[in-house]
Write the structure tokens for this entry.
Amino acid sequence: MLADIVEHLACPVCRQPVRLEHRSLRCANGHGYDVAKQGYVSLLVGSRPPGTADSAAMVEARAGFLDAGHYAPLARALARSVRARIEGERVPPDFRTESFAHSPDDGSVKAYGGAEVSFGHETRLVGPIVVDAGAGTGYYLAAVLEATARGVGMAFDVSKHAVRRAARAHPRMGAFVADVWRPLPILDRTADVVINVFAPRNGPEFRRILRPGGAVLVVTPAPEHLSPLVEELGLLSVDADKERRVARSLEGFTETDRQEVGFDMELGPADVLAVVGMGPSAWHTDTSRLQERISSFFSRSVAKNREKVVTRAEFHLSTFEVTSRSSDGA
Ligand SMILES: C[S@@+](CC[C@H](N)C(=O)[O-])C[C@H]1O[C@@H](n2cnc3c(N)ncnc32)[C@H](O)[C@@H]1O
Ligand SMILES: [Zn+2]
């Protein structure tokens, strides 16, 4: 677990900072959270978690589909947008420095992202913090961190199956089980960017954890997403009110940018099963009936000499910035 990450966490019980002691996180009031052997920490406390955590099967379907690269263009678009926000950002010299034991180089001054960082004078720069709310397997956050040389990632998801994978997704990422609908276990004004990809949002909490000038980048499916599978297999379609619901959930933010990200994918039957199994229809569809529908769809398509179906991926990538902070005194 990176010390850089632990210092931004808040105890989910008393909201105080936590420290890493041996293999657990502890606050000054004695609340403790063990680091699991897979490297993640559960910060879920109190009453029952919501019943919306992805199951082991959904996480496996998602991991397989994402690892095959079908949504790679979306990951690239998101990584580019985050990088454009956080690189080139000038960090004041006395800000976000901390002592560290081993100097990584000869003490030369390095320029990075517009910030001059003096290594070898017992200081180092803690990189921009990217929080992923509803991170799943950490696939998108890993792509974002990979595109930024110093970015540090905090992945939160209520599914421990997902978080176990996120804990291994990138060396600059920490992964935590937490419920996005409750107060997030993060200190105020920590995040440079919050990313939120097909996952629940918590506007007031996003606002609290963002640094001034920070933003939330939200990815939602657009109406043509997964066409023609939606019609052919009777899947849940994108709710026409989706955009309005996203905006409502981010009250106090203004949408300052919106990109349409669209591309075609060539999917075989196993990919189709995975994309359905990882999405909202998985909650409502019986797997054996779905498999029958997929076989029948492919036999119709294969009759037209196609073993793969061209399927549309279409998303909105929106940037939301805090409109005003008058209520929290900034
Ligand atoms: C559709 S998946 C998207 C995961 C990931 N962003 C991705 O695109 O690969 C939705 C994720 O939200 C998580 N989730 C659902 N309710 C949640 C909550 N209340 N708090 C945190 N995560 C939640 C699920 O466990 C699941 O991993
Ligand atoms: Zn505590």
Summary: The chain is about 30% helix and 25% strand. Residues 11, 13-14, 16, 27, 29, 31 surround zinc ion (ligand 2) (CB under 6 Å). Confidence is low (pLDDT under 50) at residues 90-125. The radius of gyration is 21 Å.
